[in-house]
Amino acid sequence: MEILAFGVQSDEKPLIEKAFAGLHDVRCLDVFLTEDTAPIAAGYEIISTSVNADLGSRVLQTLAAGGTQMIAQRSTGFNNIDLDVAERLALRVARVSYYSPHSVAEFAWTLAMAVNRRIVRAVSRTRDFDFRLDGLLGRDMHGRTAGVLGTGKIGEAFARIAHGFGMNLLGWDVAENPACTALGMTYVDKEQLFAEADLISLHVPLLPATQHLIGAEALSAMKDDAILVNSSRGGLVDTRALVEELRAGRFTGVGLDVYEAEAGLFYVDKSVEGIDDDTLARLVTFPNVIVTSHQAYYTRDAVGQIIDATVQNVTDYLAGRRSDNVLVPALPPR
């Protein structure tokens, strides 16, 4: 059987081909799954998609009409998938429920320290042989307060690093993580966390209840010199509201690895044609902001685990087995 994989990065392709070798043939495409590219999947019973795939109603209908019966998404998040429509169409959908939480937590800290210590500006200067320190003043993290919204595996890993810096820990989640409380984390309501944290990092899933969790009200409640990091999902932050706060001169720094309108932009080279997203264009002009293209998970360790789980999801589907990775449990008639 040949499997069609959409949105495969050049670094991923040899890893995917090696993982499927001896099991199934795999055709890797660098194009992402959209309404325009969905017809390519005609005749493929199994496809694999990336986190920025469009798996809305129209795309799912096209896939089902073309004979697709199983979708193996290579990510943990699944807010891009209309699960109700997938179930109605009897499509099996699986995701990767776990991969290295350290990849994302470490990258979140990379963003935090880069904006705190003005690394991008410093590197840009030294490349021009400008070795002044003006404008590069940072601050110690030791003794300050880290606020962690979402204390699951990734939030816990982030908190462990914060603990290593000697920071005070505040947490917010629907349930307390004993491993975090053992680090000395105090769970508070999010309003208190916004008001007291010097560094705020987001590690919650994107759900209707968390859409724009960081909106105008939350942003206004934060310290003027706070650092905000989002390596989870772009929709957690109201970007327009964030831009307004930045224009007012607030925040020491903002590190964003995700953006609420990233689909169609991230993972694509727009350097020649440019973009028509005025909000993103304005956001990247602020000297205290770093935007990266949803790469926090992108380590050899994490990507390898994601691919291995994807292979297992396909194997389980063909064997008629279900696992915790399955989002829509439909099985094909066999």
From TrEMBL:
<dbReference type="InterPro" id="IPR006140">
    <property type="entry name" value="D-isomer_DH_NAD-bd"/>
</dbReference>
<dbReference type="Pfam" id="PF02826">
    <property type="entry name" value="2-Hacid_dh_C"/>
</dbReference>
<dbReference type="InterPro" id="IPR029752">
    <property type="entry name" value="D-isomer_DH_CS1"/>
</dbReference>
<comment type="similarity">
    <text>Belongs to the D-isomer specific 2-hydroxyacid dehydrogenase family.</text>
</comment>
<dbReference type="GO" id="GO:0008720">
    <property type="term" value="F:D-lactate dehydrogenase (NAD+) activity"/>
</dbReference>
<feature type="domain" description="D-isomer specific 2-hydroxyacid dehydrogenase catalytic">
    <location>
        <begin position="8"/>
        <end position="327"/>
    </location>
</feature>
<keyword id="KW-0560">Oxidoreductase</keyword>
<feature type="domain" description="D-isomer specific 2-hydroxyacid dehydrogenase NAD-binding">
    <location>
        <begin position="110"/>
        <end position="296"/>
    </location>
</feature>
<dbReference type="InterPro" id="IPR058205">
    <property type="entry name" value="D-LDH-like"/>
</dbReference>
<dbReference type="Pfam" id="PF00389">
    <property type="entry name" value="2-Hacid_dh"/>
</dbReference>
<keyword id="KW-0520">NAD</keyword>
<dbReference type="InterPro" id="IPR036291">
    <property type="entry name" value="NAD(P)-bd_dom_sf"/>
</dbReference>
<dbReference type="InterPro" id="IPR006139">
    <property type="entry name" value="D-isomer_2_OHA_DH_cat_dom"/>
</dbReference>
<protein>
    <submittedName>
        <fullName>2-hydroxyacid dehydrogenase</fullName>
        <ecNumber>1.1.1.28</ecNumber>
    </submittedName>
</protein>
<dbReference type="InterPro" id="IPR029753">
    <property type="entry name" value="D-isomer_DH_CS"/>
</dbReference>
